[in-house]
Specification:
Low-confidence stretches of chain A: 5-18
Number of strands of chain A: 0
Order of helices and strands of chain B: HHHHHHHHHHHHH
Largest sheet of chain B: none
Oligomer: heterodimer
Distance between the termini of chain B: 55 Å
Helix content of chain B: 55-70%
Distance between the termini of chain A: 44 Å
Helix content of chain A: over 70%
Strand content of chain B: under 5%
Structural class of chain A: mainly alpha
Order of helices and strands of chain A: HHHH
Structural class of chain B: mainly alpha
Mean pLDDT of chain A: 82
Chain lengths: 112, 414
C-alpha cells in the first residue's frame, strides 16, 4: 500500500470518527431487524410468493446481514482496511459455497 | 520400501539435521564442534546407505513394508542383516549429535551474531537473540536483506545506513503468564478424552475455561499497552479480530455449503420439513438479534463511562446469549427424542455440525461477555478499555450475522 493510499485512508478514518452512530440509530436498526425477521417468517406462508421465495428470503437476510455489519460492527464508520479484510474473504467464501453446491448438483440460485 | 526410506530419510532427516546445525548457534549462542559434526555427517551418510540401499534388493525380492518377521526361506535374511547394521550406525550417528549438542552447551565456542555470514534477518541480531529480537525494527531492503545491507545488491549498490531511531517509548513485551500453558493442558486433556472418555473431555474443557478466564483477568497496568496502533492507523487487536472474522467466513461458508449440498439427499427420516420448528426458531433469532442491540448499548455505556448501564447491558447481552443457547438445547433435545441424531442421516449430520458449531461460538461469546462483566465489576474496564468491549462486540455481532444466514438457509428456505 503506497503512502498516498494510506493518507487517503487516514483522512477517511478521521472523517468517519466524527460520524459514530447514535443510540437512536442503534434502536432504529434493531426495529428494522425485528420487522424484517417478522416479514421473513410471514412470507413463507404466502403461497403466491412461492416462485420468488428463495431470492426474496436471500435478499431480506442479506439486508439484515449488511445492517448489522455496517451499523453494529461500525464498518460503515471505520477504516476501509477493515472493510477490505472482511469483505474479501466473505466474497471468496460465498464463491466457494456456490462452487460446492454447484459441483454437487444442488445449485440453488438457478434451479434446473 | 527402499524408495520410501531414501526419500524420507534423505529428504527430511538430513534436512532437519542441517537446520539443527545451522540454527544451533542462533538458538544457544554456542557453536557445535566442527570435527564431531563432520564425523556425524559421514556416519549418518554411511548408515543411511547401508541401511536402505539393500532394501532395493529386498524390495525386488518381494519384501513388503511394515512386517516384523518373515519365513527363513524367503531369502531376505542376508540383506536384512546388512540393513540392521546400517540402522545401528544411524543410531550411533544420532548419539554423536547428542554428544556434540551437550558438549557445545557446556564448552562450545561462543557464537557471534552472524557466524555463517548469513543473508537473512535473524543473523542481524545477537546469538541467542534477546527476548524482543531487535532493539529497533530492522530495515528490509529485499529478500536477502541482511546480505544486501552487508554487500550491496546485484549491482553492488549498498543502501545508505539509517541513523538509529530507538522507540521513545522503549521496548514493551507482554508480561509473562503461565496460564496459556494451563489452557494448552486443557486442550490436550480434551483431545485425549475425545479418544477415550467423555468425562476427560469435560475435565479438559473445564481446565481450558479456567485457564482462559485467569489469563483474561490477569491485569498488566502498563499505559504503553493502551494504544497499539500500527501503520494502517488501526489498532492491532481490532485488525486481528477482523482478520479472524474473515477466516470465520470460510469456516461457516463451508459448513453452510455442506448443509446445502446434502440437502434433500437423506435416505431415511426425519426430514427438515417434518421436524424444524420455525416459530420457535424465529423467537430465538429475534432474541439473538436483540442481544446485538444490547451489545452496542454496552459498548456505548463503557465508552461514556456509565458503569451502571455498562454492567446492565453486558449482563443483558450475556443473558440473551444464554437464552439463545437454551432454545438450542431445547431444539436439540426435541430432535433427539424424535429420532434425529448426528448419525441418523445426512440432514442430521450436517444440521448438528452447522448449528452445533454456531452454538459453540455463542457459548464462547457468553464466556467472553461474562469475563468482561467480571473485569468491570473489579473496576478494570473503564472508558480507556472500551476497545476490549468493541472487539468482543465484533465477535458477538459476527455470530449474530452467521445466524441470520443459517436461519434463512436452513429454516426458512423450503
Amino acid at each position: 500500500m503506497n503512502e498516498q493510499t494510506v493518507r487517503a485512508l487516514d483522512e477517511h478514518d478521521a472523517s468517519a470518527a466524527e460520524h459514530h452512530p447514535t443510540i437512536r440509530t442503534y434502536v432504529i436498526v434493531a426495529a428494522i431487524l425485528t420487522a424484517v425477521t417478522g416479514l421473513e417468517f410471514g412470507v413463507i406462508y404466502v403461497r403466491r410468493l412461492a416462485p420468488i421465495l428463495f431470492p426474496l428470503l436471500l435478499t431480506l437476510s442479506a439486508g439484515k446481514f449488511a445492517l448489522v455489519v455496517m451499523f453494529y460492527m461500525h464498518l460503515r464508520y471505520d477504516s476501509r482496511v477493515l472493510t477490505f479484510l472482511f469483505v474479501a474473504p466473505l466474497v471468496l467464501a460465498t464463491v466457494l459455497a456456490i462452487a460446492i453446491t454447484t459441483l454437487t448438483g444442488e445449485f440453488l440460485v438457478f434451479r434446473r | 520400501m527402499a524408495h520410501l526410506h531414501y526419500v524420507l530419510i534423505g529428504g527430511s532427516l538430513f534436512g532437519i539435521l542441517a537446520g539443527a546445525y545451522y540454527w544451533w548457534p542462533k538458538m544457544t549462542g554456542r557453536l557445535l564442534d566442527e570435527r564431531l559434526g563432520r564425523l556425524q555427517f559421514w556416519t549418518m551418510f554411511a548408515g543411511f546407505n547401508i541401511a536402505f540401499f539393500p532394501q532395493h534388493f529386498l524390495g525386488v525380492a518381494g519384501m513388503p513394508r511394515r512386517i516384523y518377521t518373515y519365513n527363513a526361506g524367503t531369502g531376505w535374511t542376508a540383506w536384512s542383516a546388512v540393513s540392521t547394521i546400517g540402522a545401528f550406525i544411524i543410531g550411533l550417528s544420532v548419539l554423536l549429535f547428542l554428544v556434540n549438542a551437550v558438549r557445545s552447551l557446556r564448552h562450545g565456542a561462543i557464537a557471534a551474531g552472524d557466524p555463517w555470514d548469513g543473508r537473512t534477518l535473524e543473523w542481524r541480531t545477537s546469538s541467542p537473540p534477546p527476548a524482543h529480537d531487535f532493539d529497533e525494527v530492522p530495515p528490509v531492503y529485499g529478500r536477502d536483506s541482511f546480505w544486501i545491507e552487508k554487500y550491496g545488491d546485484t549491482r553492488g549498490r549498498k543502501p545508505t545506513p539509517r541513523p538509529a531511531q530507538p522507540d521513545p517509548h522503549g521496548i514493551h513485551l507482554p508480561a509473562p503468564s503461565h496460564w496459556p500453558v494451563v489452557m494448552a493442558l486443557g486442550i490436550g486433556l480434551a483431545a485425549v478424552g475425545a479418544l477415550t472418555s467423555l468425562g476427560l473431555v469435560l475435565i479438559g474443557v473445564a481446565v481450558l475455561v479456567v485457564g482462559a478466564f485467569a489469563f483474561a483477568l490477569e491485569h498488566h497496568p502498563n499505559p504503553a499497552h493502551v494504544s497499539q496502533e500500527g501503520g494502517l492507523g488501526v489498532d492491532h487487536r481490532k485488525l486481528a479480530m477482523w482478520v479472524f472474522l474473515g477466516s470465520e467466513c470460510f469456516l461457516f461458508g463451508t459448513l453452510i455449503a455442506t448443509y446445502m449440498a446434502y440437502k434433500g439427499r437423506s435416505v431415511v427420516g426425519p426430514l427438515p420439513h417434518q421436524i424444524l420448528n420455525i416459530p420457535v426458531t424465529t423467537l430465538s433469532t429475534f432474541d439473538l438479534l436483540m442481544s446485538s442491540l444490547l451489545m452496542v448499548m454496552a459498548l456505548a455505556a463503557v465508552q461514556r463511562g456509565d458503569s451502571r448501564q455498562a454492567r446492565l447491558w453486558l449482563a443483558g447481552t450475556a443473558l440473551f446469549g444464554i437464552i439463545f443457547l437454551g432454545f438450542q438445547a431445547y431444539e436439540f433435545t426435541e430432535f433427539v427424542h424424535q429420532g434425529l441424531t448426528l448419525q441418523t442421516n445426512l440432514f442430521g449430520s450436517t444440521f448438528f455440525t452447522l448449528t452445533g458449531f454456531h452454538g459453540g461460538h455463542v457459548t464462547l461469546g457468553v464466556i467472553w461477555l461474562l469475563t468482561l462483566l467480571v473485569l468491570h465489576l473489579r473496576g478494570r474496564l473503564g472508558p480507556h478499555d472500551a476497545l476490549k468491549v468493541e472487539i468482543a462486540g465484533l465477535y458477538w455481532h459476527f455470530v449474530d450475522v452467521v445466524w441470520i444466514l443459517i436461519f434463512t438457509l436452513v429454516y426458512l428456505v423450503p
